[in-house]
Design brief:
single chain, alpha/beta, 7 strands
């Protein structure tokens, strides 16, 4: 909980320490995000149901459609992210550790969102340094290709779901560029992180919420 690092990658943290944003960009992002944030579920609210395609373990489109409400025999540990978000990808090892420890108690799901920093949008230099260079996908196949590359390069162990090209799941949860939820077996949100990009201490707060809920259930 006291860990104030952004990520587990010193190169990403160094880049973030020197990153600046113009007042105009901050105001633009705030205006775009505020109505989405206001409509997203808070703790105590019902979690919006959704159906999304799951990638295979090798990062390929599987055609398998997974519905949130169909996997609630266990509480759901839900997160959002994309490969071009340097913060999220540099936190994946910690997410894998949490999944490894708690996968018997929770259904972990990761929703793959639209790219946070594509080359034809808001580019960031660290992505070029780390060979994560992609335009914003225009088809689900293109999104699946990037998500699959991320899955295999980083060994993502959690089920990875593709948001549709309308980004409806991400919008419903205000999940862009990254966010964490705990949803109980009745579909009620029990924990919601701040909207990302966030520091490691936010992940640890989610982890503690998961452990506490698992203890209550046992």
């Amino acid at each position: 909980m006291t860990d104030n690092r952004w990520t587990l990658d010193p190169a990403v943290d160094e880049f973030l320490a020197g990153m600046t944003m113009s007042k105009e960009l901050i105001e633009k992002l705030k205006a775009e995000h505020e109505p989405i944030e206001a409509a997203a579920p808070q703790p105590g609210d019902s979690a919006p149901d959704f159906t999304a395609e799951r990638l295979s373990g090798s990062g390929q489109r599987s055609g398998e459609q997974l519905q949130l409400s169909s996997v609630r025999s266990r509480p759901v540990a839900l997160q959002f992210g994309s490969y071009t978000c340097p913060v999220w990808r540099a936190q994946i090892d910690r997410f894998n550790e949490i999944h490894e420890e708690l996968q018997d108690q929770f259904q972990f799901l990761t929703v793959y969102t639209r790219e946070a920093h594509p080359e034809d949008g808001w580019k960031v230099e660290i992505n070029n340094d780390q060979d994560v260079v992609y335009d914003q996908p225009t088809t689900l196949d293109e999104r699946a290709h990037i998500a699959g590359t991320c899955l295999t390069r980083h060994g993502i162990r959690m089920p990875l779901l593709l948001d549709g090209m309308d980004d409806s799941i991400t919008r419903a949860y205000a999940g862009s560029p990254e966010r964490l939820y705990l949803i109980d077996e009745t579909g009620i949100v029990r924990h919601r992180s701040v909207n990302g990009p966030f520091r490691m201490k936010v992940i640890e707060a989610w982890y503690e919420a998961l452990k506490e809920y698992a203890t209550v259930r046992s």
